[in-house]
Design goal:
seven-stranded mixed β-sheet; Immunoglobulin-like; binds CU-O-CU linkage; 42% strand; 8% helix; binds copper (II) ion; mainly beta
Length: 475
Amino acid sequence: PVKRPASGLISIEQRSASVEILPGLRTEMMTYDGVFPGPTLETRRGETVTVRHTNSLTLPTATHLHGGHTPAESDGWPTDLLVPPGFEARHAGHGAGHTGGHGGGHGGDHETMDDPKAQVRTGKRDYRYPLDQPATTLWYHDHRMDFTAPQVWRGLAGFHIVRDDEEDALSLPRGEREIPLMIADRAFDEDGALRYPALDPELLGQPGVEDRYMAGVLGDVILVNGAPWPEAEIEAAQYRLRLLNASNARRYTLRLRTDSGTPVRFTQIGSDGGLLAAPVEHDEITMASGERFDVVVDFRSLPPGTTVEMRNGLGTGRTAQVMRFRITRRATDDVRLPERLADVPEPEKPDGAVVRRWHFRKASVHGRRGWGINGKPFDPAVPQAQVPLGSTEIWEFFTDAHHPVHVHLSPFQVLRRGNHGPGPMDLGWKDTVDVRPYEAVRVRVRFEKYAGRFLIHCHNLEHEDMAMMAGFETV
Ligand code: C2O
Ligand code: CU
Ligand code: CU
C-alpha cells in the first residue's frame, strides 16, 4: 500500500475508483484516495493527527479507526456521526457544497469546518486522533450502520501505523523488511466487478436468503494488499509482517512452508494493541476478522530461488492459498530480536472488579432473523452499559456460535478462555478476540480518558450489520 506520514491535518478523499485487481480487468471500488487498500498512515505516538475525510461517494460513510484510543466524537458512531456524500450537499439547496463558493469572505474551508452543521453540508468530517498509545498496527475502515460489510467489501479499509521511541530503540526488521499485509477475501463477476451476494437484487426477498448469509459473506479470491495470491520478492533475511485479517467473515489459520515442504515458523512480537512482553514462537497463526498479529519470519537460512508459501489451513482449494515469498538473494541482516520487547503487565484479575456478561447470540431484528447481544439487536439510542472512566472491569463474552468480539476505545487482556488460561492467539493487548462456541472468554479492560458512547460488536461484518452490536457509555 501507499505510505503516508500523518500528523497535524491531513486529508483523505473517499471516492469511487476503477482499480485493477484481477489481471486485465477493472473493478469499480469505494476507496480512500483512489487506492485499495487505502493509504497506510503513519503517526508517532502522541502526535495528534486530524484526518479530514471528504466524501465524494454517492453514499453516506462513517470512518472508524480500529484499535485507536479515540474520543467518542471521532470514533465513527454508525448512525448520527456520518459523512454524507458531498454531492448531496451540493444539491441540498444551501449552496454550501463548494467551499469558498458563496458569499465572499465567508465559506473558506477553515470556517466551514468549524461548524458541524456546515461539515454535514459539505460532505466532510474531521476525525481527531490523539494516538496516545503504544506503537502498533491499527486500521481504519467504514462503520456505517447496516452497511459496514458491503462498504468495507467494496474497498473502504486501510492501515494506520503508530510508532514510538521505545519500539524504535529495539532491534527489529524495518524499512523494506517491515511489511503490512492486509488479508481479505472477495468475490468477483466475470467482468471484474465485485460481487457482494447479499446485495444481489435477484436474491433479496427470496425465502431463505437471510439464513444463507447468517454466517457472513465469504469470497473465493484471497487478496493480500489488494492483489490476488501475490508473490513477494524478498531477500534471505528476517522480515516483520504486520498481519491483518480485514475479511468480512473469513478466518484463517496461516502456515508457512518452503517448496520442499519444510515448515517456517512465525515469531510473534505484537498483537492488536502493541508489542508483547517477549517474542513467542508459533507454527501457525489463527486470525479472525479484525485481529492483527505482528510477526517476524526468519528467511535467512533459505537459499536464493526458494519459495515460501503462506497457506490457510481453514481454506479449501484456492482459499487454502494466501501468498508466496520468493527469496531472490542473500543479504546482510544485523537484526537480533530482543528477549524483552515491552512492559506488559501480567493479566491478573483485579479484586472486586465488576463482571459484565455479554452474550452473543441470535436475536430478532424488526421481526427478521438476525444477531444480537444479550438478546437485543443494536439500538443506537440505548447503551447496554455505563462504565465509569478510570475503572477496570472484567468482561465475559459467551456465544453459541463463532464470533470475533471487538471492543472500541480500550484494549484488553485475555484472562481466561473456557476452563483454561489465555490461548496461544490471546497474548498481549487485544481489541478483538475470537470467541468460540460455548467457551466463555474473560478479559480485563480498563476504561480511560474519553467520555461518551462507544461500541462493542461482532467483527464478522455481516453479523455487525445484522445488529450484533451494542453501545456502552463511559462516564
Ligand atoms: Cu473494526 Cu467497530 O470495528
Ligand atoms: Cu474498533
Ligand atoms: Cu458474529
